[in-house]
Write a structure and sequence with these properties.
nine-stranded mixed sheet, alpha/beta, 16 helices, globular
């Protein structure tokens, strides 16, 4: 009997645990949520605004009134919902919660698995235009190879991913969850990663935590100018000075790092408050020259807002700043191949010189662009798709 128990225990130990299976998911916001939204928009208590100030003090009330009126009377969420559902959505149990992601597979069996991660205040909606270009580049006038199996995931506490029920879910924890999703749940032994904003920090942590899984890391810009030790080249010093000059633009992050729950109440209770907090960033950070609808239509802006509003994830999205600023990070130089695509029009993070990047990364490709701003996948999807092809085509072709 004892021998049977021992043999059973050995067999159980040698049997791999079943892989968590993703569940197909369709976006369907309840009618009651939409009715409540329209009622809240109609009851907005608008603030006054000093004459002639425009966007000088923050979100321009005149523009916001125009946007909100369209949101209430003209915006067709069901049409946008149908557009979103043309992609294959899933949720999978990872790290004690469910992560939402789009999984778009190429017909090419040799396609490269690629994880795309958004930041704040965007969502997976940022990736919708670039996904078809990566999955079937030839159909969109791009080089025929490489193509990609794309996973566009929602960060924990964003969109249709679960809201964390514990503290401390910062970049390192999120990176471990995304690695589990790609490797353990979806079965990709090796894959590429690209992230912008919060997503960029997350994929860098992935490259440090599970380098054996990462084919290459593609980033948009250097976030901040910390960590470098003098002496600095003239170009590096200019980058540090330019970064420091943009400190006023980062005060939103200071608030979200320190008092996110104070902000959460207004973001969760008032759709106009949510719109004011987020739309101002899309205007300021994109290559819009002060005209946000040069880059994003009202439908696009409101679809992104609806992902926050309908899911009630605005509070969790700002709490992530509190958590990532306190969670210990994996440290060290990233030795996996790194490709950089930086815009000179990003008003949040100025482009760094290559020598600055080489302090921290194994840089294999370094490109600057004068078009597009902080939301490059959304603003210039073809440019980013071509850069991803060039970078990953290079690093995967080497022996």
């Amino acid at each position: 009997m004892l021998l049977v128990i021992i043999l059973t225990a050995i067999a159980a130990a040698q049997t791999p645990s079943p892989r968590a299976m993703p569940e197909k998911f369709a976006i369907r916001v309840p009618d009651a949520v939409l009715t409540d939204l329209r009622e809240r928009l109609a009851r907005t208590r608008w603030p006054d605004q000093l004459p002639g100030t425009g966007w000088d003090y923050g979100t321009d009330t005149a523009y916001l009134r125009e946007l909100v009126d369209y949101w209430r009377t003209g915006f067709d969420w069901r049409a946008q919902e149908a557009r979103l559902n043309r992609f294959d959505h899933f949720r999978a149990p990872v790290g004690g919660m469910r992560l939402h992601f789009i999984h778009a597979r190429s017909r090419n069996p040799d396609a490269i698995p690629l994880l795309l991660l958004h930041g704040w205040p965007s969502s997976f909606v940022q990736m919708l235009d670039i996904i078809p270009l990566l999955v079937d580049p030839a159909a969109h006038g791009l080089p025929t190879a490489p193509s990609f199996h794309v996973v566009a995931a929602s960060l924990p506490g964003f969109g249709f991913s679960d809201i964390p029920t514990r503290t401390g879910v910062g970049f390192r924890t999120t990176a471990a969850m995304m690695a589990e999703l790609m490797h353990d749940v979806l079965g990709y032994q090796r894959y590429g990663v690209r992230g912008s904003d919060l997503g960029a920090n997350t994929v860098q942590q992935m490259a440090l935590l599970v380098p054996e899984q990462i084919i290459g890391v593609h980033l948009t810009g250097m976030i901040g100018a910390a960590g470098g030790a003098p002496p600095f080249t003239a170009a590096e010093q200019a980058f540090i000075d330019a970064t420091n000059a943009r400190q006023p633009e980062w005060q939103y992050a200071r608030l979200q790092m320190t008092k996110p729950q104070t902000l959460a109440h207004s973001l969760n209770d008032s759709p106009v408050g949510l719109a004011a907090w987020i739309i101002e960033k899309f205007r300021a950070w994109s290559d819009s020259n002060g005209q946000v609808e040069r880059r994003f239509s009202k439908d696009e802006l409101l679809t992104n807002l609806m992902v926050y509003w309908a899911t009630g994830t605005a509070p969790a999205s700002v709490r992530m700043y509190y958590d990532f600023s306190r969670e210990p990070l994996a440290t060290g130089r990233i030795d996996r191949p790194v490709g950089m695509l930086m815009s000179t029009r990003d008003s949040v993070f100025p482009p760094a010189p290559r020598e600055w990047g080489e302090r921290f990364f194994n840089v294999q490709r370094w490109v600057e662009t004068d078009v597009g701003g902080h939301f490059l996948e959304w603003e210039e999807p073809e440019l980013v798709a071509r850069e991803l092809q060039a970078f990953f085509g290079s690093v995967t072709s080497r022996p």
